[in-house]
């Protein structure tokens, strides 16, 4: 675990009745809780790029700090409480596992603004924010479907966020390759390089053509590179897979973080439930590997533009669960409630949920 803070000078105090501990001539102190090491790729790395953009944008109006490798539970509550007790006026929990700890501390510090990524617990001083990552997952699934006939997924936890991603990748692949199939190995961790590698090797031993993952280390990409297979990654990890890394879903948290900090500084921060994707430039995909033919790129890029224009939804009907149950009727679009509570596999995914 590592803690880092940059001491800077001068800022505005929290508004909207969220006074925090800041005084009028002090910088706004902003704390980030990370579920894994920052590294140089992956989920936490992309959140930290947003934090760095805050420092570049606001300069001496703010001071940021982060704590790495906090998965959840008592450790997360301790870190969040420590930030709150030390006068931080805005605190971000960046992992699903931080939800309950952040909510508990937020209830005890009503004058501080809290934000939690990917959760569903909201309060007057606790906002939640998501990206529609399933859009980029659908696109990388299309790439996988045109570069192979099967995919092996190293998955973290069977929560709706992950199930949406598995299903979106499978649907994207099936849209271009009707014979495509997906295998899943669950490891109950967001970051465990050894376990990630073991799961990836097990999937490759079963003969899958392309790997994908919901974990934060480059272990799955390295497995694909070592075994001369392909991978679609979480975050641009091309440096770990010169030949294997086809593309990746990429998060862009910076615009959201800049907007929320500006609102605190302006005194206009309010709780919110934000869920945006490609159309708001909060999601995209990484540059293609040279191995990806131009015709594949053209098909995927065209689909991305349909998403940007709002003319295509990855889960538009007809959407069938693995058992044939109709989840979204033909011609219909899913509501966010169904997406946020997704608890099923679509057809094309093998096996059953744990």
Which class best fits the helix and strand makeup? alpha/beta
CATH architectural category of the largest domain: 3-Layer(aba) Sandwich
Shape: globular
The first-to-last residue Cα distance is 30 Å
Strand content: 15-25%
**Overall residue-averaged pLDDT value:** 93
Name of the CATH superfamily of the largest domain: Response regulator
Q: Level of helix content? A: 25-40%
Radius of gyration: 20 Å
Order of helices and strands: EEHEHEHEEHEHEHEHEEHEEHEEH
Task: Please indicate the count of domains.
Answer: 2
User: Tell me about the biggest sheet?
Assistant: 7 strands, mixed
What topology, given as strand order, has the largest sheet?
A: 1-3-2-4-5-6-12
Protein name: Nucleoside-binding protein
InterPro entries: ABC-Purine-Binding, PnrA-like
Pfam family, one: Bmp
Organism: Roseicitreum antarcticum
Give structural attributes.
single chain; 354 residues; alpha/beta; Rossmann fold; 2 domains; 7-stranded mixed beta sheet; 6-stranded mixed beta sheet; 15 strands; 36% helix; PnrA-like; ABC-Purine-Binding; Nucleoside-binding protein
């Amino acid at each position: 675990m590592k803690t880092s803070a940059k001491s800077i000078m001068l800022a505005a105090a929290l508004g909207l009745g969220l006074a925090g501990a800041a005084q009028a001539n002090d910088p706004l102190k902003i704390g980030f809780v990370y579920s894994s090491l920052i590294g140089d790729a992956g989920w936490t790395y992309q959140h930290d790029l947003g934090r760095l953009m805050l420092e570049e944008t606001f300069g001496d109006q703010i001071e940021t700090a982060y704590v790495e490798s906090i998965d959840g539970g008592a450790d997360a509550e301790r870190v969040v409480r420590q930030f709150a007790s030390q006068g931080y006026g805005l605190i971000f929990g960046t992992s699903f596992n931080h939800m309950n700890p952040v909510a508990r501390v937020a209830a005890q510090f009503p004058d501080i603004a809290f934000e939690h990524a990917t959760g569903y617990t909201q309060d007057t001083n606790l906002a939640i924010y998501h990206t529609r990552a399933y859009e980029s997952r659908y696109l990388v699934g299309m790439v996988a479907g045109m570069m192979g006939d099967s995919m092996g997924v190293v998955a973290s936890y069977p929560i709706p966020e992950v199930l949406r991603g598995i299903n979106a990748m499978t649907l994207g692949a099936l849209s271009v390759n009707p014979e495509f199939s997906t295998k899943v190995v669950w490891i109950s961790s967001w970051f465990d390089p050894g376990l990630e590698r073991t799961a990836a090797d097990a999937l490759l031993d079963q003969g899958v053509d392309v790997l994908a993952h919901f974990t934060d280390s480059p272990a799955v990409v390295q497995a694909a590179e070592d075994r001369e297979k392909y991978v679609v990654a979480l975050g641009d990890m091309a440096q770990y897979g010169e030949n294997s890394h086809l593309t990746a879903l990429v998060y862009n948290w910076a615009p959201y973080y800049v907007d929320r900090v500006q609102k605190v500084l302006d005194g206009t921060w309010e709780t919110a439930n934000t869920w945006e994707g490609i159309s708001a430039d909060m999601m995209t995909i990484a540059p293609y590997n040279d191995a990806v033919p131009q015709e594949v790129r053209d098909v995927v890029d065209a689909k991305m533009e349909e998403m940007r224009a709002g003319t295509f939804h990855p889960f538009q009907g007809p959407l069938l669960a693995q058992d044939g149950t109709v989840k979204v009727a033909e011609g219909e679009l899913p509501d966010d409630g169904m997406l946020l509570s997704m608890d099923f596999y679509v057809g094309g995914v093998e096996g059953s949920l744990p």
